[in-house]
C-alpha cells in the first residue's frame, strides 16, 4: 500500500452549524501529526464526529438518534424550528500533485443527507467509491478510533476478534452466500442420499415381486378351479332350498287362515276393552286432577302455617308489652295522686304559716307599751345610757363579733342538719328502689335459664331434624343419582328398546328346554360375554350363526331337544354337545403375534366347563383394532382368519366381509342382556327406596317451624339479657349513689357535732361578756332606776327587747318556712305528671291498635286456613267418589282382560306356529340370500334362465336358476336327507382339497400389477438420482469456490496482521531497560475454516510470563489493543488515522511510547529516522484527541478547542509547533 505522502492528507475542515459549532468555521490546517486539545465539554469529540460525518459514518455512531440531532441548536425552541441546515466540508490534498478535492456532506431541511464532491452533487455510491479509491473504507471505519474502541478491542473474545478480521478483510461480504450455499449443499446431499436409498429399495422390491408374481399366477389358476367348484356347490344348495321353501309355503297358507279368524275375535274383544278403558281414563283423570288440587291446597296450607305462627308470636309479644305498659301507667297514676296530695298538703301548711305570721303581727301591736318618763329624766337617761355605752363599747364590740360568729355557725348548723336529713331520706328512697329492682332482676334471671333450657331442647331437636333432613336429602340425592346412572346405562345399552318377537320366542324356547332337560346349559349369549365392550361386534361376527346356538351336555340331550322342537313346531335351533364336539386346540403362536392382535377366544369370559363350545364357535380367529393390521395378518405370509373390532371379517381365502347394519348392532347388544336385567332390578330397587324415604320438604317445614320458635326464644333471651344488663347498671348506679350518700353522711355527722360544740362554747363566751356588760350597766343605772321606780332599767329594756327580738325571730322563722314552702309548692306544681301518663296511654292505645290489627289478620289467616282445609276435604271426598267408580270399572275390565288374555294366548300359539313356519322360511330365504351374496362377493356367476345382468339379490322371484349343470344323482338327492349329506360331504372334500392347495401357495396377488409398476418406478427413480447427483455437484463446486475465496481473503488479512503485530508491539513496549520489547502474536483455533471459529490474541509485556488478555493491567491491555489496531490499519491503510483519547488508560511512559510511534508513522522526518517504523507499514496522517501533554507535545501542530461562553458554541485555534523544533 502506498504511504500517506503518496496519497494525500486532510488539509482543513469547514463546518457550519454542526453540533456545538455555530455558524461557519474553518478548522486547520492539519499537519501530518496534529493533536486536538481542550478542556472537557469544549467540543473535541464533536470535531472528530464532524470528520466521521463528512466521511459517511451513520448518525447512530455519532451520538445522535437522527441527522437533525447533529444540527446546532441553542435551546429547544431553536431545535424545533423548520428549515435548519448544517454541513461539513473536508478539503483533501493529494500528495502526488498537491491538488485539492472537497468532500461535502449536508444535512438538508428535511433531515436527509446530500453529498457533494467539489461542489457537485453526487450519489452515495459515487461518494463512497471516491473515498474508497483513496483507501478510506467507511464500512470498516479503517480511518478512526472512537473513544472507548480501544477498551472494546481489548475485551473482545476469540469469536469477536474473528468477526473483526472478517470485516477488515472483506470476507464477511461472502458470509451470507457461504451459509446459503452450505445449506443448499447439505439439502442437495440429503436429497441425493434419499433418492439413492429409494432406488436401492425399489430394485430389491422388484426382485422380490418377480418371485411373488410367478406364485400369484399359479394361485389364480387354483382359485379359478375352486370358483367353479363353489359355483356348482352353491347351485346344488339353492336347488335344495327352493324345493323346501315350496313345501313350507303351502303349509304356512293353511295356518294363516286359522290365525285370521282368531285375530278377528281378538279385535272385537280389544275394541270393547279399549272402550271401557277410555271410560275409566275419564275417572282416572279426574282423580289425578283432584289429587293435584289437593296437593296445591296442601302447599297453600303449608305456606299459611308459618304466617299463623308468626302472627301468634307477635300477638303474644304485644300483649306482654301492653301488660307492662298498663302496670307502668297505674304506677304513674298513683304517683300523680300522691303528687296532688303533696301539693295540697304544702298549700295547707303555707296557709297555716300565713295565719301565724298575722297573729304575730297583731301580738306585736299589743306589746308596744313603754315606760313614761319626764323630760329631765329622759335627758338623764340618755346621758347615763351614753356613759354606759362608752364604758361597755369595747365589750359590746367583742360580744357583737361573738354574736355574728354564733349566728353564722347556727345558720351553718341548720343547713348542715337539713342536708343530713335530706341525705337520710335519699338513702331510704334508694333502699326501696334497690329492693324493687332486685325483685325484678331476680324474676328476669329466673326466667332466662328456663328460656335457655327450652332453647337448648329446641336446638337439639332442630339439629336432629336438620341431620335427618340432610341425611334424607343425601340419601335421596344418592338414590336419585344412582337411579339416573342406572337409567343412563340402560339407555346406553339400548335396554329401552323392545326385544324382537323372534328373540323373545327364542328366549322362551331355551327356558322351556332348560326346564325340561337337565343337560341344557343355555344359549351362547347367556353363557359367555366379551371381556370388554369394544369386542362386542368382533365376537358377534366371529361366532356368526353359533351366537344363538344352545350348549347341551351330550348328543342324546341335543336329540331330545330337537325332537321337542319338532313336536311343538318351534323354529329349528343349533345345538353344541360338549362331550361329542370335536375342536382344534388353540395355536399358542397366535398369542405372541404382537401389535393389537389377540385370539377372540382370549377376549371372551366364560365358565371353563364350556371351553370346548366357545372354542368350537370361534376357533383360532384373531381380533385386532385396525384394518391395516388385519390385512397384514390375513393376507401376508401365513394366513389367518381375522376380524376387526368394528366387525370387518377377513378370511384365509382372501375374502373380506364388512359394513354395519342394524341387525348386526342389535345382535351385538345381546351380550349385555344379563347386565340389562341386573340394571333393571337395581333401578327398581332404587325407586322403591326413594318411595319409602320421607319427603325432604316435610322435614324442611318441621325444621322451619322449630327455627321460628328458636328465633322467638332467642329474641326473648336477648331482650331479657338487655333488660338484665340495664337493671344491673341501675343497681350499680344506685349502689354507688348510696355509697356516696353514706360517705357524705359519715363526713357531715362529725362536722355537725363539731359545729354544735363550737356553738355551745361560743354561747358560753357570749353569756360571760353579756354578764360583764350587764354588771357595768346595772352599776351605772342603779340610781336612775330607783328614781324612775324600776328595780332595774336594763332588765326592763332587755325584757322589752327580748320580747321584740323573740317576736322578730319567730316572724323570720315563719317567713323562711313560708319561702321554702312556696319554692317547694312552685316546684311540685311545675312537675308535669300528666305527660308521662299521656305518653304511656298513647303507647298503650297504639299497642292495642296493633293488637287489634294482628288479631284481625290472625282471624283472616285462620279463616283462609279453614277455607283451604274445607276445600281439601271436598276434594278428598270428590276423589274418593271417582275412585269408587273407577274400582267398579276395574272389575269389568278384569273380566275383559281375562277374555282378551285367552284370545291372545290362542293367537300367540297360532302366531308361534305361523312364525315358526315363517322363521323356517326366513331361514331358508336368508340362506338363499347368503348364498347369493356370497356368490356376488366371491364373483361367482350362477347359471340362470334369464339375463344374468337382471339379477336382483333382494328378490328371490327375480332369479330363475338353471340347474341343468347338476347331475341326475345330485338332483335326486335333494329329496333324501341322507343323499344330501353324502353330496355335501363330497363337495366339501373337493373344495377343502383345492383350498388347502391354495393356502399352501400363499401368494401376493397384487404382485402382478406391482411388478410392472416397480419396473417403471425404477426407471423414474434412476433419472431422479442422476439429476440429484448433478445438482449436488454444481452446488458443491459453487460452495468450494466461495469457501476458497473467503478463506483467501481472511488469511490474506490475518497473515499480514499477524506478521506486523509483533513488530508493532515491540516498538510500543521497548525501552532502554528492555530494548527488545514484548511479544504479541495471533493464533487460529481452526486453520481450515478460520472464519467459523475463534482467534486467540496473546500479548506478553517485557519481563512478564504468558498471561491471558483478561489478566493484564489496564495499561497493558491498551498497549496490546493499540498494537492490534495499528496492525489492522497497516493491512488496509487509510491516508489518515483519527484517534480519540486512546491514551486514557496509559501512564506517562507508555503515553510517550505511543506518541513516539505515532510520530514515527506520521512525520516524514520521523519515518526517515526510524527504520523499524518504515518496515512495519506505510505512513499516515495522524489526528489525535488527547488531554496529556506528554502526548500532544510530540505533535507537529495543535488544534485547541474552547467554549465561547458569549455565544455558547465551540471555537478552535491552530498552533504550529514545527517552528520550535524539538
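Sequence proposed for the structure above (1222 residues):
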Amino acid at each position: 500500500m502506498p504511504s500517506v505522502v503518496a496519497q494525500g492528507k486532510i488539509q482543513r475542515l469547514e463546518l457550519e452549524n454542526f453540533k456545538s459549532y455555530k455558524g461557519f468555521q474553518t478548522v486547520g490546517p492539519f499537519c501530518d501529526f496534529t493533536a486536538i486539545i481542550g478542556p472537557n465539554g469544549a467540543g473535541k469529540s464533536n470535531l472528530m464526529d464532524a470528520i466521521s460525518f463528512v466521511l459517511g459514518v451513520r448518525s447512530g455512531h455519532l451520538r445522535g438518534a437522527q441527522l437533525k440531532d447533529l444540527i446546532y441548536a441553542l435551546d429547544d425552541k431553536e431545535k424545533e424550528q423548520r428549515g435548519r441546515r448544517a454541513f461539513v466540508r473536508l478539503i483533501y490534498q493529494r500528495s502526488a500533485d498537491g491538488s485539492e478535492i472537497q468532500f461535502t456532506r449536508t444535512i438538508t431541511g428535511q433531515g436527509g443527507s446530500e453529498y457533494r464532491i467539489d461542489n457537485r452533487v453526487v450519489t452515495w455510491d459515487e461518494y463512497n467509491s471516491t473515498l474508497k479509491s483513496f483507501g478510506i473504507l467507511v464500512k470498516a471505519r479503517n480511518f478512526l478510533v472512537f473513544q472507548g474502541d480501544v477498551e472494546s478491542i481489548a475485551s473482545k473474545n476469540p469469536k469477536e476478534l474473528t468477526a473483526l478480521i472478517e470485516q477488515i478483510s472483506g470476507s464477511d461480504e461472502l458470509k451470507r452466500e457461504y451459509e446459503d450455499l452450505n445449506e443448499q449443499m447439505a439439502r442437495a446431499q440429503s436429497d441425493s442420499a434419499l433418492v439413492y436409498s429409494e432406488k436401492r429399495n425399489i430394485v430389491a422390491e422388484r426382485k422380490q415381486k418377480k418371485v411373488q408374481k410367478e406364485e400369484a399366477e399359479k394361485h389364480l389358476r387354483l382359485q379359478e378351479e375352486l370358483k367353479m367348484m363353489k359355483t356348482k356347490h352353491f347351485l346344488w344348495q339353492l336347488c335344495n332350498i327352493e324345493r323346501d321353501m315350496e313345501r313350507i309355503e303351502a303349509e304356512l297358507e293353511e295356518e294363516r287362515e286359522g290365525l285370521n279368524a282368531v285375530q278377528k275375535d281378538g279385535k272385537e274383544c280389544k275394541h270393547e276393552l279399549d272402550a271401557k278403558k277410555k271410560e275409566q281414563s275419564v275417572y282416572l283423570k279426574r282423580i289425578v286432577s283432584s289429587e293435584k288440587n289437593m296437593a296445591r291446597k296442601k302447599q297453600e296450607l303449608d305456606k299459611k302455617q308459618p304466617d299463623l305462627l308468626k302472627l301468634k308470636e307477635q300477638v303474644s309479644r304485644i300483649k306482654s308489652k301492653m301488660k307492662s305498659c298498663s302496670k307502668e301507667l297505674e304506677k304513674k297514676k298513683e304517683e300523680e295522686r300522691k303528687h296532688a296530695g303533696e301539693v295540697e298538703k304544702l298549700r295547707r301548711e303555707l296557709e297555716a304559716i300565713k295565719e301565724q305570721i298575722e297573729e304575730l303581727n297583731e301580738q306585736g301591736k299589743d306589746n308596744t307599751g313603754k315606760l313614761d318618763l319626764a323630760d329631765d329624766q329622759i335627758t338623764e337617761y340618755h346621758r347615763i345610757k351614753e356613759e354606759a355605752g362608752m364604758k361597755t363599747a369595747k365589750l359590746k364590740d367583742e360580744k357583737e363579733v361573738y354574736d355574728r360568729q354564733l349566728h353564722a355557725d347556727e345558720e351553718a348548723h341548720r343547713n348542715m342538719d337539713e342536708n343530713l336529713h335530706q341525705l337520710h331520706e335519699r338513702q331510704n328512697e334508694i333502699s326501696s328502689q334497690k329492693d324493687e329492682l332486685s325483685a325484678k332482676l331476680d324474676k328476669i334471671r329466673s326466667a332466662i335459664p328456663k328460656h335457655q333450657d327450652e332453647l337448648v331442647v329446641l336446638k337439639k331437636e332442630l339439629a336432629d331434624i336438620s341431620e335427618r333432613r340432610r341425611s334424607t336429602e343425601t340419601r335421596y340425592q344418592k338414590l336419585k343419582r344412582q337411579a339416573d346412572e342406572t337409567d343412563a346405562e340402560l339407555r346406553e345399552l339400548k335396554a329401552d328398546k323392545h326385544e324382537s318377537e323372534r328373540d323373545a320366542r327364542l328366549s322362551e324356547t331355551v327356558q322351556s328346554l332348560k326346564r325340561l332337560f337337565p343337560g341344557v346349559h343355555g344359549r351362547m349369549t347367556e353363557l359367555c360375554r366379551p371381556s370388554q365392550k369394544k369386542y362386542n361386534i368382533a365376537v358377534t361376527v366371529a361366532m356368526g350363526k353359533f351366537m344363538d346356538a344352545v350348549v347341551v351336555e351330550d348328543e342324546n340331550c341335543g336329540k331330545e331337544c330337537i325332537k321337542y322342537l319338532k313336536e311343538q313346531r318351534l323354529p329349528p335351533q343349533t345345538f353344541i354337545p360338549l362331550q361329542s364336539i370335536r375342536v382344534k386346540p388353540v395355536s399358542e403362536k397366535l398369542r405372541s403375534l404382537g401389535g393389537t392382535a389377540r385370539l377372540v377366544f382370549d377376549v371372551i369370559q366364560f365358565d371353563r366347563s364350556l371351553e370346548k363350545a366357545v372354542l368350537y364357535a370361534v376357533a383360532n380367529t384373531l381380533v385386532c383394532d385396525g384394518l391395516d393390521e388385519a390385512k397384514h395378518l390375513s393376507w401376508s405370509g401365513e394366513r389367518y382368519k381375522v376380524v376387526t373390532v368394528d366387525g370387518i371379517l377377513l378370511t384365509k381365502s382372501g375374502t373380506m366381509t364388512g359394513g354395519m347394519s342394524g341387525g348386526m348392532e342389535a345382535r351385538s347388544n345381546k351380550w349385555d342382556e344379563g347386565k340389562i336385567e341386573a340394571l333393571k332390578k337395581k333401578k327398581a330397587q332404587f325407586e322403591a327406596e326413594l318411595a319409602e324415604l320421607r319427603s325432604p320438604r316435610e322435614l324442611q317445614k318441621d325444621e322451619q317451624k322449630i327455627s321460628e320458635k328458636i328465633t322467638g326464644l332467642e329474641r326473648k333471651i336477648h331482650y331479657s339479657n338487655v333488660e338484665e344488663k340495664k337493671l344491673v347498671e341501675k343497681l350499680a348506679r344506685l349502689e354507688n349513689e348510696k355509697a356516696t350518700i353514706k360517705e357524705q353522711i359519715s363526713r357531715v355527722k362529725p362536722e355537725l357535732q363539731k359545729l354544735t360544740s363550737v356553738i355551745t362554747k361560743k354561747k358560753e363566751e357570749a353569756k360571760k361578756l353579756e354578764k360583764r356588760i350587764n354588771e357595768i350597766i346595772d352599776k351605772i343605772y342603779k340610781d336612775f332606776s330607783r328614781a324612775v321606780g324600776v328595780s332595774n332599767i336594763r332588765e326592763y329594756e332587755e325584757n322589752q327587747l327580748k320580747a321584740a327580738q323573740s317576736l322578730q325571730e319567730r316572724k323570720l322563722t315563719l317567713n323562711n318556712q313560708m319561702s321554702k314552702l312556696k319554692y317547694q309548692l312552685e316546684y311540685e306544681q311545675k312537675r308535669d305528671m300528666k305527660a308521662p301518663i299521656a305518653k304511656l296511654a298513647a303507647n298503650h292505645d297504639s299497642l292495642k291498635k296493633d293488637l287489634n290489627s294482628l288479631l284481625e289478620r290472625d282471624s283472616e289467616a285462620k279463616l283462609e286456613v279453614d277455607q283451604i282445609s274445607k276445600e281439601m276435604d271436598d276434594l278428598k271426598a270428590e276423589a274418593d267418589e271417582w275412585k269408587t267408580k273407577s274400582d267398579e270399572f276395574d272389575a269389568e275390565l278384569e273380566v275383559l282382560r281375562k277374555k282378551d288374555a285367552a284370545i291372545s294366548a290362542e293367537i300367540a300359539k297360532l302366531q308361534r306356529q305361523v312364525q315358526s313356519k315363517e322363521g323356517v322360511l326366513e331361514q331358508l330365504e336368508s340362506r338363499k340370500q347368503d348364498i347369493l351374496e356370497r356368490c356376488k362377493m366371491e364373483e361367482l356367476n350362477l347359471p340362470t334362465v334369464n339375463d344374468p345382468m337382471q339379477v336382483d339379490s333382494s328378490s328371490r322371484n327375480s332369479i330363475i336358476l338353471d340347474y341343468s349343470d347338476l347331475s341326475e344323482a345330485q338332483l335326486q338327492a335333494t329329496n333324501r336327507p341322507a343323499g344330501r349329506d353324502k353330496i355335501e360331504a363330497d363337495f366339501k372334500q373337493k373344495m377343502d382339497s383345492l383350498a388347502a392347495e391354495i393356502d399352501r401357495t400363499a401368494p401376493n396377488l397384487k404382485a402382478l400389477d406391482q411388478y410392472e409398476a416397480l419396473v417403471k418406478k425404477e426407471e423414474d427413480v434412476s433419472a431422479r438420482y442422476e439429476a440429484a447427483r448433478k445438482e449436488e455437484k454444481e452446488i458443491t463446486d459453487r460452495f468450494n469456490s466461495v469457501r476458497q475465496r473467503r478463506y483467501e481473503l481472511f488469511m490474506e488479512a490475518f497473515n499480514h496482521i499477524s506478521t506486523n503485530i509483533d513488530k508493532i508491539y515491540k516498538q510500543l513496549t521497548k525501552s532502554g531497560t528492555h530494548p527488545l520489547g514484548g511479544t504479541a502474536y495471533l493464533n487460529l483455533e481452526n486453520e481450515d475454516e478460520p472464519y467459523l471459529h475463534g482467534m486467540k490474541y496473546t500479548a506478553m509485556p517485557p519481563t512478564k510470563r504468558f498471561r491471558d488478555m483478561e489478566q493484564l493491567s489496564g495499561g497493558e491491555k491498551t498497549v496490546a489493543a493499540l498494537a492490534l489496531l495499528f496492525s489492522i490499519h497497516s493491512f488496509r491503510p487509510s491516508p489518515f488515522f483519527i484517534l480519540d483519547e486512546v491514551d486514557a488508560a496509559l501512564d506517562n511512559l507508555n503515553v510517550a511510547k505511543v506518541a513516539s510511534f505515532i510520530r514515527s508513522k506520521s512525520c516524514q522526518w520521523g519515518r526517515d529516522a526510524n527504520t523499524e517504523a518504515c518496515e512495519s507499514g506505510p505512513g499516515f496522517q495522524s489526528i489525535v484527541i488527547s488531554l496529556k501533554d506528554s502526548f500532544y507535545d510530540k505533535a507537529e501542530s495543535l488544534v485547541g478547542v474552547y467554549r465561547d461562553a458569549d455565544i455558547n458554541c465551540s471555537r478552535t485555534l491552530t498552533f504550529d509547533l514545527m517552528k520550535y523544533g524539538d
